[in-house]
Design a protein that fits this description.
This protein has 288 residues and is of the alpha/beta class. It has 13 helices and five strands.
């Protein structure tokens, strides 16, 4: 067994098992300060993150390499969370260590007029990762049962059927060879307030501040209800949700890295064999 295959000893259980949403789990009970399944310390994080990033990059490149030989499997990481939960940090500190050729990133904001003229899944389908790639959705199709619900952008009889529609859509993706890693990221209101305040104190972070974020904080009870419904109704055996507490950025980054590693390991990847005579090519190269 090659180095890096085993779960690091700092984890008591595989994060896939530890963090999976289970029926009966309540959003109101989530401790955003917690570090479930991790018995290490913050001081362990930098070295461990570097080590696990290297393992993730190896598996990610292996996935990409196999696509050159016709393997059409892919992975989609869905990051769903309130502002300041750290979605951008995951993209930078986790995905940033991989081969960019094999990463397809998409951030979903307010729909454009063109997108609004289509079914809500139209823009999602256009952004799905191709074979051999890892797609990253910063927000996703779940906005259409979260913000749409909280802000009453469409009536309940429009958004209510979307839960089952999303389940059917994700079943289609999984049956087509895509592995979904769905992560619901939770930050406490106090920590969110601290992070927003930091953006107002640092000119290099003004661009990240949106005055509307304060308005969204006031709607947290409605969002809490919407997130609960999302988790209850769209966490399936083929595409389960994982709950990641995000007050401690170092923990959320380690946890999501491990979720990705586990997903890639489940694909039982290996390096594709040569499609040519290696020894003959060595001889040709030596005489060239």
């Amino acid at each position: 067994m090659s180095e890096g295959l085993e779960l690091p000893t700092q984890w008591t259980h595989e994060p896939h098992t530890e963090l999976m949403f289970r029926p009966g789990d309540q959003v109101a009970d989530i401790d955003a300060d917690a570090t479930p399944g991790f018995r290490g310390k913050k001081t362990d994080a930098p070295a461990l993150q570097q080590e696990r990033n290297a393992r993730f990059a190896e598996l990610q490149e292996m996935l990409y390499a196999n696509s050159r030989s016709g393997d059409t499997r892919s992975v989609l990481l869905v990051l769903q969370g309130m502002d300041t939960a750290g979605k951008g940090g995951i993209v930078k500190h986790v995905m940033g260590g991989a081969n960019p050729q094999g990463i397809q990133y998409r951030s979903f904001g307010k729909p454009t007029p063109e997108e609004l003229s289509h079914h809500y899944l139209w823009r999602i389908r256009k952004a799905l990762p191709s074979g051999g790639h890892i797609g990253v959705f910063d927000r996703s199709h779940y906005e259409d049962v979260l913000i749409v619900r909280v802000h009453n952008l469409v009536p309940p009889d429009v958004w209510e059927p979307r839960y089952e529609e999303i389940n059917a859509f994700e079943r289609e993706l999984v049956d087509g060879g895509m592995t979904l890693v769905k992560v619901a990221m939770f930050v406490s209101l106090d920590e969110q307030k601290r992070r927003l305040a930091e953006r107002l104190e640092r000119p290099d972070k003004y661009w990240k501040y949106n005055p509307a974020d304060v308005d969204e904080r006031l709607k947290w009870p409605a969002y809490q209800e919407a997130y609960q419904a999302m988790l209850d109704r769209t966490s399936t055996d083929y595409a389960p949700w994982h709950i990641v507490p995000c007050n401690r950025k170092w923990y959320s980054r380690l946890a999501i890295t491990e979720l990705l590693i586990e997903a890639l390991k489940q694909l039982d990847l290996s390096w594709p064999p040569a499609t040519f005579d290696v020894e003959a090519e060595k001889a040709r190269l030596a005489s060239a």
